[in-house]
Amino acid sequence: MKYLLLIYENETNWAKVPEAERGKIYQEYRDYTTAIRKSGNHIAGEELQPTSSATTVRVKDGKTVTTDGPFAETREQLAGFYMVEAKNLDEAIALAARIPSARSGSIEVRPVMPMHSPE
Amino acid sequence: MDLERLYREERGRALATLIRLLGDFDLAEDALQDAFATALEHWPRQGVPSSPRAWLISTARHKALDRRRRSRIFAAKRSEIAYLSPSAADTEEDADEDAVPDDRLRLIFTCCHPALALEAQVALTLKTLGGLAVEEIGRAFLVSPATMAQRLVRAKAKIRGAGIPYEVPGGPLLAERLDGVLRVVYLVFNEGYAATSGEVFVRHELCAEAIRLGRLLHGLLPSEPEATALLGLMLLHDSRRRTRIDARGELVTLEEQDREQWDRKEIAEGTSLTESALRRGGAGFYAIQAAVAALHAQAAGAEETDWPQIAALYALLLRLHPSPVVALNHAVAVGMAEGPARALRLLEPLAASGELRGYHLLPAARADLLRRLGRFAEAAAAYEEALALVQHDAERRYLARRLAQARAQRSAPHP
After folding, report:
1. Phi/psi zone of residue B362: left (φ > 0), alpha (ψ -120 to 50 degrees), beta?
2. Residue B46 domain-assigned (yes or no)
3. Within the 60-119 window of chain A, which residues sit less than 8 Å (CB to CB) from chain B?
4. B11 found inside a domain
5. pTM
């Protein structure tokens, strides 16, 4: 089953993390990514630029409305994601728990809708 | 040949196996119900098969597979059910009952998965393993049948959609997940022990089911002291089952119960399990409560109850696992050990904080303490408060009697 692991972190706190500490965390991420590629779980994964770089798009009455910022102001912000293949939810949870940000932020584990076979 | 009773006894285990074989809760429940309908037609005439559970499972499976073959939805759902042992359907079940593995442990760990909301865990466990109707579960938790039905639908959808596996968790995960399971089992027991609403005060089948589940867990994890303790606790409570309601359906308090009627076998087993749990695990949440229950069970009469020891145990419980309900129980025990005045003082902050708003046992406890202090007008007011909140008919009548007494004593001329 495919799962999207959504990584939420408080951006303000992350910005305060000293350079050296950040370097260590990034290494943990690289190690994690390598490990889950090796175990065959990794499908995709990216770090996102902070919400200051976000743009929200809505189309109302045929007009495209563009606003600066994320779709909603939240206490923790979407910082990145992994798309993984896992046997079941327990395996997905175990993968999520190994993500470095699980310790400081939250990881949402969302199953991907299965493909519908045509009638 | 009481078929209804047989079905009630075999249903949980049959359902648990069917869920494993079919990979779907709803399909398993419907198929089992169909199988039982067939049993009701044939067994009165042909006799009950030597292995009724195996018969039910086999019949249900065939009905389900027939249904599936005809259903076009099966093709679309294939990817969803793949995670639930797709090849298990090939296993031929033995005619020997005991050869059919007990899948109830898988079922309970799945129902109690932390990815489900607690209320969903309890509802699902009661529905599948307790065999309760949706309306009954709803009544127990003070929600409408429609709300409870929705809760169950959403829980099963979550299990399917999110891929919650139908497994007993392995290795280090087991102990961690066990906490959640124990909590649900105890909630089920409490529902049977003192159903919160309706006429039937003690639902024996639920207590029996909870105890069965407790035995399963204790059997699987003999080195988990809290599983042992929970079983001990439930057995000790259950030992008083026959004396809690009198012949007219009225509530009998602990002090008034006929201790000759307490089940000595359950007390012996419960006490032994409690001692074992305390020895191995120390002051666990269930172990301490079991120790309190054991102290009650050991007292030959109400007057011989070791209240100071009980109060000390509740104080320990309050320190290690604080909660408003534990604080209330502690205060009640102090009331018995040191006198009602001290207990009332302990209850003041609890009442003021509003944490137990809506919980009838708080005003009921205050009323009892006030009554013992001779403050009858205040006691009457507290009984009225409790009556406004009580769910249980037998408890309501008990409180109403106490209220009448308090009012009578309030008006009585002082000597």
Report:
1. alpha
2. yes
3. 86-90, 92-93, 109, 111, 114-117, 119
4. yes
5. 0.77
